[in-house]
Amino acid sequence: MLVRRSGPLVAVVTGATGSDAARTLVNSVNYEANVTWDEATSVSKRNNIGNLIVAVFSLIGILLLFAIIFGVFFGGIKVLLRRAFPARTFGKPEDAEFIQLHLK
To answer: C-alpha angle 73/74/78, rounded to 5°?
Structure first.
């Protein structure tokens, strides 16, 4: 039995072989490490926390703008209908009435 370690590899030869053939076979197993450097050297635009904060506030601004536009649109329709038809009540009639106590 012949054992040889090369890096994380372990070569084991067992059985009825000649010692020269086993030694040649074990010595032919070699581990060669290739190290590369692929780490980013700077913070990219995508990984910048400042750009994330700006994007969040931009989204908030867009959502507020849509909310204001839809609020003015729906509220404006109700105001225009009340001016066009002053005698009619839009919605439930009990919402238009006031409870008065007449405390004098």
So the answer is: 115
